[in-house]
What does this fold into?
Amino acid sequence: MGMGVEIRNRIAKRAAEEIKNGMIVNLGIGIPSLVPNHLPAGTNVMFHAENGITGMGPSPEKGKEDENLCNAGGFPVSIVKGASYCDSTIAFGMIRRGRVDMTILGSLEVSGKGDLANWIVPGKKVPGMGGAMELAQKARKVIVLMNQTDKYGNPKIVDECTLPLTSARCVNMIITEMAVFQISAHGLILTDLFAPHSINEVRAKTGCSFTIAENVRVIN
Amino acid sequence: MGMGVEIRNRIAKRAAEEIKNGMIVNLGIGIPSLVPNHLPAGTNVMFHAENGITGMGPSPEKGKEDENLCNAGGFPVSIVKGASYCDSTIAFGMIRRGRVDMTILGSLEVSGKGDLANWIVPGKKVPGMGGAMELAQKARKVIVLMNQTDKYGNPKIVDECTLPLTSARCVNMIITEMAVFQISAHGLILTDLFAPHSINEVRAKTGCSFTIAENVRVIN
Amino acid sequence: MENTFNKIIELDDAMKHFRDGMIIMFGGFGGIGTPPSLIDGILDNGFKDLTLIGNDSGFPHIGIGKVVSRGRAKKMIASHIGSNPVAGQLMTDGKMEVEFSPQGILAERIRAGGVGIPAILSDIGLDNDIVTGNKQTCSVGGKKYLVETALTADISIVFAKKADPYGNLIFDKSARNTNPLVAMAGDMTIAEVEEIVPLGSLDPDEIITPGVFVNYIVPSKGVNWKWAWE
Amino acid sequence: MENTFNKIIELDDAMKHFRDGMIIMFGGFGGIGTPPSLIDGILDNGFKDLTLIGNDSGFPHIGIGKVVSRGRAKKMIASHIGSNPVAGQLMTDGKMEVEFSPQGILAERIRAGGVGIPAILSDIGLDNDIVTGNKQTCSVGGKKYLVETALTADISIVFAKKADPYGNLIFDKSARNTNPLVAMAGDMTIAEVEEIVPLGSLDPDEIITPGVFVNYIVPSKGVNWKWAWE
It folds into this structure.
């Protein structure tokens, strides 16, 4: 995403605040994978992987990788106490049955209504949806972590997505390097601002209108 | 069935001949449960139960029953080497996928076309179909063991079943205390005769026409 | 025992989640694998007008049969009630409605509910009035199939051999039967277990029901009925 | 090792069951859990015009990716091909047809094939052209659903940690993934296994795939590719 490590961690840290004790959380690749590093010690959370792991732990040390213990992206992980393995139908059963409390993922575009477009760039990239549609449609809460703008400076939060949708009206929260937005029945609401960005600056880099929460939190 | 032990065992023994090495076989209650006693030593057959056992062995000795190891009828069994437990969807998956080679069951009526009626007596007994329909429709071979006639002397092999069908055109073989019939595209064929019964006697107690195989085997 | 996830509760506390008129799904097959203490809790607390979903109606004094025999169910969805004559009598007398579903299809409908699949198509009992009832059909590739809809419940009750504090479950031999399916299908799932073991002591490869699906764990007081074969 | 059920065979004998143009279903997820020796056997024997069904197209030199990269597949049914740029190129060039299915629904379609269910209904990707394609819909209770048909294959190939001579299988950690589903869906199923153990030495409660579904067992020569993270 062409973002410094510090900024990426700031976004991940804010996302980590959304995770409560006892939750089951699915993390996408990229910034979402940094979220566990920012959880308070003793948080009882189970990280879920589509390939059939409940209870993923951190990446193993170099040289201690197990080729048969990898996340959905094919990279080595570890497990925590209380973890279990299952086949892919059960892993997705957890998602569709509403037992996965939260998914935290990246996106190419999100609309102010919560439409998610994160899987295809027509004519360029048609890699398949993988598990993105099920997670977007069925996880209880969908949080998108992404840049406020694309590499050309165009807003990634838009009025109507120009890219094909992964799923309509599914995103509950967007966290960028500039701000945090909630998406409710009343539309997009700015709730947090990352210093030193201003609301005007965010407005200039957002492709749709948004309201401002009563008490905007400023995160330094 | 009001049949002597000796006759019941004769039927079971003839049924046991149909079981070949490597088969997966589901047995109903009654005479079918006697079939394993008549298998040649060393036959590698796996007995299947709808509640999730593959590889059932004989009933345990009195006092050695395990309440958590029972067949589909709720009665204690044992297991053989190579047995496994699964949930009921997988047990029935084996049936519907065509992996169960044979089911041996009882019946109230069978028609000459192979229609099976073994689950309801309207106005009297409506116990539910249990797993009978899936077994009848999907086991690779369906063998019925039953009396030639009911307790009033009426034939149980009939032209058209009077009782509601469990499944149409599913029975491949019928073994009674008098004879063995195959059911093919050409209809009912008598292949074996249990001494001292005669073909005329069988005809008198069969409710539909049948042809006679070229070399009828007489079983003493 | 550590109760890290606050899932381990006493029977009395488990009973606070039940109420009259509920849809209750139960694990077990002929009574085997049906949670005895939860069944007694339901009886002792007088819950009634229940809709019960499970493989069968047990025996009159075994498994779910105890609840059925005392007239606490207004409806059952099951594959057979042959082993419980009281259930048959209640049905004949119009005191309990019974919906029959072929056994394997019933299990698949419960699983479908558990994994968030709205329905499956089936060719089992397609030409049988009692199976088809007023079920919808759907033709695929020129063949007609029954639409067998998913089943879920307000509460699922299951019986397991061991649980850890997260609710990961393993089952004992053929007492597994419908339990892992029922465990997924409840909006709330309560597992009665023979033994609670520390977190991390169950082999993750051997866990049959992931704790994700289990809301509460109740220690079992054991089977207190005589088996049919005893 | 005793070969009581005549299921244990050498790789060369396993290859006699393959032919050009076959539908082959493979276990694995990102290459993990895909049987390396059977993949090499398919490559070495030159089988082509294959239809491949599985979670994804692996990496160019990992898992099923090795078969895809060498142009041996005329069609794939998968949930994504993002990790294998060669697959994307073949698709773009019109040299390989790709049918995408949402990951969990693909797994359910394979399972449905495996347990003899003709189709499931699904609400995943209902308003998405790439998912719906020309799929049939079915309305139940006023809601529209996609009819997602079952998938089966001429041969299923899976990778397991241990097998006994009956073909009962256990899997290793997350290498289980789609393997138990794929194992049920093949008209013939061949399991490549790391270890063959005597009949009776696997705990019947821990067996994941009953040997009923496994026709042949081939000893593995082990993974011979470099993992993406190496």
Observations:
- Chain B touches chain C at residues 49-53, 65-76, 85-89, 91-93, 95-96, 120, 125-131, 133-134, 137-138, 164-168 (CB under 8 Å).
- The radius of gyration of chain B is 17 Å.
- Chain B has four helices and 13 strands.
- Chain B has one domain: 5-219.
